[in-house]
C-alpha cells in the first residue's frame, strides 16, 4: 500500500492566527504540513511558485465584509478556490505578565480585529493608540518581545499561550456572533465534483463603463435562478472609477444554471475569471426555482433541437 501524499499548505501566520485555527479544521490534517507566511500575498505567492500546494487565507468576515488584499490577489489570477472554511472568531486582550489594563497605551492587532473590537476598545481603553499588524499573532509576538513598543495585542486567546502572554480581557468583540470565512487556494485545475451544496466564485470585468453594466451582470444570474452570496466592487488599479466585481454564487459550474450564467457573463463582460466551484462550508442545500434545474435546461435544449429540425 502506498502512503498518502503529504501536502504543504501556506497560511497567514505566524503560528497562533485565526487562519491557522481555520487550517486546523481541514480533513486529513495528519497529511498537511502547515507553513506560516508573514502576509496573504506571501502565502498565495508560495502557491503560485509551487513552493506550497495550497494556501489558507481569510477572505470575508461577517462584520467587516471582504478582505481586500485576498480579493485583489485572487482577482489577479493563477489561483483557484478549492474549499471554504467558516470559523467563529473571538478576541482577547493579551499582555506581558504583570501588565494592568490601565497600562495599555499602545495596542497592536490586525485591521479586522481592530474593527471587530472597536467599541470595546473605545469604552475600555479610550486613550490607547492602535497600531495595525499583519496578523493578530504577529501582534502578540511583537508584544512578547523584550522591550516591545506595544503594551498589548488583540488576538485569539490561544495566541496568549503560544507567546506566553496573559489574558487581560476575554471575548472583547463587539459582535459575539462574528464569523470569518477562509478559503483554501490552489493552482488552477478542474474543479472538484459537485456535492449538491456548492458555491462558485468569479471576478467579472465590465467591457466599458455604461449605464446598467452592473444590472447586466446581475441579470445573467437572476434569470437563471442563481442566488449570489457576495458581490463587491474592487478597483482594478487601472485608473480612477475602474472596478471589477468579485462575486460568489450558489451552485457548481457543472450545474446548467450556473454554467449558463457564466456563459452569459462571458458574452456581456470584457473578461470573466473563474475562481472555482467548491463545497459550501455550511452544507446548506437550496431549493431551486421552478424552471432552473438541470432537467429543465436539458428539456429546453431538446425542445429547441426539435424546433430546429421541424419536429416540434
Ligand atoms: O490575524 C489573524 O489571526 C488572521 O487570521 C486574520 C484575521 C483577523 C481577524 C479576524 C479574522 C481573521
From TrEMBL:
Top-level enzyme category: lyase
Annotated signal sequence range: none
Catalytic activity: prephenate + H(+) = 3-phenylpyruvate + CO2 + H2O
Site-annotated residues for Essential for prephenate dehydratase activity: 180
Keywords: Amino-acid biosynthesis, Aromatic amino acid biosynthesis, Lyase, Phenylalanine biosynthesis
Pathway listed: Amino-acid biosynthesis; L-phenylalanine biosynthesis; phenylpyruvate from prephenate: step 1/1
Prephenate dehydratase domain span: 8-187
GO BP terms, alphabetized: L-phenylalanine biosynthetic process
PROSITE patterns membership: ACT, PREPHENATE_DEHYDR_2, PREPHENATE_DEHYDR_3
Protein name: Prephenate dehydratase
Lineage of producing organism: Bacteria, Bacillati, Actinomycetota, Actinomycetes, Propionibacteriales
Amino acid at each position: 500500500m502506498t502512503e498518502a501524499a503529504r501536502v504543504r499548505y501556506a497560511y497567514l501566520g505566524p503560528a497562533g492566527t485565526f487562519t491557522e485555527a481555520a487550517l486546523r479544521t481541514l480533513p486529513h490534517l495528519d497529511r498537511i504540513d502547515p507553513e506560516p507566511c508573514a502576509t496573504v500575498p506571501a502565502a498565495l505567492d508560495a502557491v503560485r511558485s509551487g513552493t506550497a500546494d495550497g494556501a489558507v487565507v481569510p477572505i470575508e468576515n461577517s462584520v467587516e465584509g471582504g478582505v481586500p488584499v485576498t480579493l485583489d490577489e485572487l482577482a489577479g489570477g493563477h489561483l483557484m478556490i478549492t474549499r471554504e472554511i467558516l470559523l467563529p472568531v473571538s478576541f482577547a486582550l493579551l499582555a506581558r505578565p504583570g501588565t494592568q489594563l490601565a497600562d495599555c497605551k499602545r495596542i497592536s492587532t490586525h485591521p479586522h480585529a481592530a474593527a471587530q473590537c472597536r467599541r470595546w476598545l473605545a469604552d475600555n481603553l479610550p486613550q490607547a493608540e492602535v497600531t495595525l499588524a499583519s496578523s493578530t499573532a504577529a501582534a502578540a509576538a511583537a508584544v512578547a518581545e523584550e522591550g516591545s513598543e506595544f503594551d498589548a495585542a488583540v488576538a485569539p486567546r490561544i495566541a496568549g499561550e503560544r507567546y506566553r502572554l496573559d489574558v487581560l480581557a476575554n471575548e472583547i468583540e463587539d459582535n459575539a456572533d462574528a464569523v470569518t470565512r477562509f478559503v483554501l487556494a490552489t493552482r488552477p485545475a478542474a474543479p472538484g465534483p459537485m456535492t449538491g451544496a456548492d458555491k462558485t466564485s468569479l471576478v467579472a470585468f465590465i467591457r466599458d463603463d455604461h449605464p446598467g453594466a452592473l444590472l447586466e451582470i446581475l441579470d445573467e444570474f437572476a434569470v437563471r435562478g442563481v442566488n449570489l452570496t457576495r458581490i463587491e466592487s474592487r478597483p482594478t488599479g487601472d485608473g480612477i472609477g475602474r472596478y471589477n466585481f468579485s462575486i460568489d454564487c450558489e451552485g457548481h459550474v457543472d450545474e446548467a444554471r450556473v454554467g449558463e450564467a457564466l456563459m452569459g457573463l462571458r458574452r456581456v463582460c470584457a473578461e470573466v475569471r473563474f475562481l472555482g466551484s467548491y463545497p459550501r462550508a455550511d452544507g446548506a442545500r437550496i431549493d431551486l426555482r421552478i424552471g432552473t434545474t438541470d432537467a429543465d435546461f436539458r428539456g429546453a435544449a431538446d425542445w429547441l433541437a426539435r424546433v430546429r429540425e421541424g419536429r416540434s
